[in-house]
Design goal:
By secondary structure, the chain is an alpha+beta fold. It has helices at 22-31, 81-97, 160-164, 170-191, 194-203, and strands spanning 13-19, 38-45, 63-70, 103-105, 109-112, 115-127, 130-141, 210-214, 219-227, 233-236, 242-245, 249-252. It folds into two domains: 13-203, 2-Layer Sandwich (BirA Bifunctional Protein, domain 2), CATH 3.30.930.10; 210-252, SH3 type barrels, CATH 2.30.30.100. The structure holds biotin. The site of biotin (BTN) has 21 residues, from helix 1, strand 3, strand 6 and strand 7.
Length: 253
C-alpha cells in the first residue's frame, strides 16, 4: 500500500493465501456492497478462471492474481470497453517498471514478443439500465520461470522474469496497475471512449495488419483497421466492406 496513489482503487484490499478463484470471492463481496475499488488478491488460485471457461494457471507466489470491484457510472452497453481500459492501464504499469514494450492483442491479452503475459476477465453485475459492479479479473505472470507453467502452455506464455531476467516486486506492480486503472477508468467515464481508443490502438499489435478471424461459425482473412466506439475490432474485408467483430480469436498472418 506504500506505493498507492489512488483515491479508491486498492484502498480496501482483501488478501487471501489460497482460494479457487478471486472472481468468485469478488462476486460475493460486490453483492454484499463492497466499495468501488475494493481488491481481492490471492497468493495462489487453485481453480483460476480464464475467458471462455478456460483454466488460468495461477502458481503460488509467482504472479498477480486479483479481482478489482469497480462501480463506474456506465450503462451495461459500455461495460465491455472496461476490458480495453484495463489493458491500457496494465501496459502503462509494465512500462513504468520494466524496459519491455508490451502489445495488446484484441480484446484483452497483453503480450511480450508474441507470448501471453497478462489476461483480463471482465464480469458484470447489472440491472437492464444500470451497472452495479464490474469485476475486473487480472492475471499477470510476474516471476515465473518456464518450468512454473504447465507444459502445454510453455510456448505461448511468458512472465516478466523470463523476459527481462530480473524479478519484479509484485506489490509495487500491483499498486501501479491500480493507480493507472483508477486514472483511465475516470478518463473513460468523464471523456468517453475516444481517448482510451487512441491509447489502445497505439499498443495494439494487429492494426494495419492482415489477420485471420476465427469464430465458432467460420474463419476468414481481412485487414485490421482499429477499434470502434463500442470496443469491436474493425476489419476491412477484401471486397472493401468494414465489419465490426464482437467476439472471435484473432491471429496475425
Ligand atoms: C484470460 O485471458 O482468459 C483471462 C484470465 C484472467 C485471470 C484472472 S487471475 C485473477 C482472476 N481470478 C480468476 O479466476 N481469473 C482472473
Amino acid at each position: 500500500q506504500q506505493y498507492l496513489q489512488s483515491q479508491n482503487y486498492g484502498q480496501k484490499i482483501e488478501y487471501i493465501e489460497a482460494c479457487p478463484s478471486t472472481q468468485l470471492v469478488a462476486h460475493v463481496e460486490a453483492q454484499n456492497g463492497a466499495p468501488d475499488g475494493m481488491v481481492i488478491i490471492a497468493n495462489e488460485q487453485t481453480a483460476g478462471k480464464g475467458r471462455l471457461s478456460r483454466p488460468w494457471s495461477s502458481a503460488a507466489g509467482k504472479g498477480i492474481w486479483m479481482s478489482v470491484i469497480t462501480r463506474p457510472k456506465l450503462t451495461p452497453q459500455q461495460a465491455p470497453q472496461m476490458t480495453l481500459v484495463a489493458a491500457v492501464a496494465i501496459v502503462r504499469a509494465i512500462e513504468d517498471l520494466t524496459n519491455l514494450t508490451p502489445t495488446i492483442k484484441w480484446p484483452n491479452d497483453i503480450l511480450v514478443k508474441g507470448r501471453k503475459l497478462t489476461g483480463i476477465l471482465t464480469e458484470l453485475q447489472a440491472d437492464p439500465d444500470r451497472v452495479k459492479a464490474i469485476i475486473l479479473g487480472i492475471g499477470m505472470n510476474v516471476n515465473q520461470e518456464l518450468e512454473d507453467f504447465p507444459e502445454e502452455i510453455r510456448d505461448i506464455a511468458t512472465s516478466l522474469y523470463i523476459e527481462q531476467g530480473q524479478s519484479v516486486k509484485r506489490a509495487e506492480l500491483t499498486a501501479k496497475v491500480l493507480n493507472h486503472l483508477e486514472t483511465y477508468v475516470s478518463l473513460y467515464v468523464e471523456k468517453g471512449f475516444a481517448p482510451i481508443k487512441l491509447l489502445w490502438e497505439s499498443y495494439a499489435d494487429s492494426i494495419g495488419k492482415r489477420v485471420k478471424i476465427s469464430t465458432l461459425q467460420d474463419s476468414y482473412e481481412a485487414t485490421a483497421r482499429g477499434i470502434s466506439e463500442d470496443g469491436r475490432l474493425e476489419v476491412v474485408l477484401d471486397d472493401g466492406t468494414v465489419r465490426g467483430i464482437y467476439s472471435a480469436d484473432i491471429h496475425i498472418l
